[in-house]
Amino acid sequence: MTSSAPRPCEVSWFAALCDDDYEQLGVWNADLLSSWDHCSRIVATAERHGFDNILLPSGYALGIDSVAFAAGVASRTSTIRLLVAVRCGEMWVPQLARQMATLDRMLDGRLTINIISSEMPGEKLDGVPRYRRTAETMRVLRSLLNGETVRSSGEYVNLDLDPPRVRTVSGSSPLLYFGGLSEPAREVAAREADVYLMWPDTKERIAELIDDMRNRAARHDRTLRFGYRTHVVVRETENEAHRAAEHIVAALDDEVGAAIRARSLDSESVGVRRQAELRVDSSDDGYVEPHLWTGIGRGRSGCGAAIVGDPHQVLSKLNDYRSMGIDAFILSGYPHLDECERFGTLVLPYLDHAGLSTK
């Protein structure tokens, strides 16, 4: 499970395309709502600080479109990769493949793809069939991006089709990032993903999950990389970090927090329920283990905990995860632009990251 010399990691930031940016959770600020100007400044700041990648999240009811935004911001970047979130079912797979290949061309090979298994807007679909659709989508998307002819007679994707003329810069599929805690989600990841993404949890549970996913992937003659999606609150001193964390939720009413969490299409998923369990298991001040604070989950769905501490403590926590086998981090903090500046100044220069290749 451990390694004395972990490989250099990939460090990504989060561009808040999904109306998830606050100074204090539950307190709306028009300047922090998702917009072309605000989100493109987050991307520019992350690139200036040397982040390897940046997640462009996707949500129908919330914020702005990830693919359209990626196309707009592509020519404004030169080094940072874009991790573009796409929701299975929202676009016919051949067109999605052509769209992704075009984006990769615009980015000169800097595209990565975050696959989201979600109900489509207005749709109600149980988890098991939804993950069958996701598996078919990932398999066919990868084949088309690899330049392969597809003959698929699946439940959701029926095709006998040559790949589109436009190809990615490398000629093969960008890396597919995917996460999910349920049994069908784990099986999809083991068979189809390149990077398996996890939300915050105790180190014991993370170790168990990594072991399980390695074993599942091995049964399919595959290997996985592992990614960790978490918030961060870093300040010059530990006391300042704790005060900053408390400030984030100081104005949050529990009913408002519940309403915010319910807006997400995945608000009742196994992973979201596990984030709620972490809050129940935490101490009175919200810490479920040293420097892992669950209070931030009171006002958002999905990733519901933050690494809180001074630069050395945050760096040590990340390196602990690296020693467990995690080599990709997707980080965020409130407000996203300000916390990107802090992390980029106080922690990133001391974290062994070397811009992992896109393949």
Compute the number of structural domains.
1
Largest sheet: 8 strands, parallel, barrel
Number of strands: 13
Beta-strand content estimate: 15-25%
Enumerate how many helices there are, as a single number: 11
Strand line-up across the major sheet: 1-2-3-4-7-8-9-13
Order of helices and strands: EHEHEHEHEEEHEHEHHHEEEHEH
Jot down its keywords.
359 residues, alpha/beta, TIM Barrel, two-stranded antiparallel ribbon, 39% helix
Sum this structure up briefly.
This protein has 359 residues and is α/β, with parallel strands linked by helices.
List the helices and strands and how they pair.
Blueprint: E1 10-14, H1 36-49, E2 53-56, H2 66-74, E3 81-87, H3 93-106, E4 111-116, H4 127-145, E5 150-153, E6 158-161, E7 176-179, H5 183-192, E8 195-198, H6 203-219, E9 225-234, H7 238-249, H8 254-262, H9 270-281, E10 287-289, E11 292-293, E12 306-309, H10 311-323, E13 328-332, H11 336-346
Parallel strand pairs: 1-2, 1-13, 2-3, 3-4, 4-7, 7-8, 8-9, 9-12, 9-13
Antiparallel strand pairs: 5-6, 10-11, 11-12
Helix pairs in contact: 1-11, 3-4, 4-5, 5-6
Protein architecture, described:
The chain has 359 residues and is of the alpha/beta class. It has one domain (10-231, 310-350): TIM Barrel (Alpha-Beta Barrel), CATH 3.20.20.30. The protein is 39% helix and 17% strand. The strands form two sheets. An eight-stranded parallel β-barrel has the order 1-2-3-4-7-8-9-13, surrounded by nine helices. The protein has a two-stranded antiparallel sheet with strand order 5-6. Helix 3 links the parallel strand 3 and strand 4. Helix 3 (93-106) packs across helix 4 and helix 4 (127-145) packs parallel to helix 5 (183-192). The longest helix is centred in the middle third of the chain and has 19 residues, at 127-145. It starts with 9 loop residues before the first strand and ends in a 13-residue tail after the last helix.
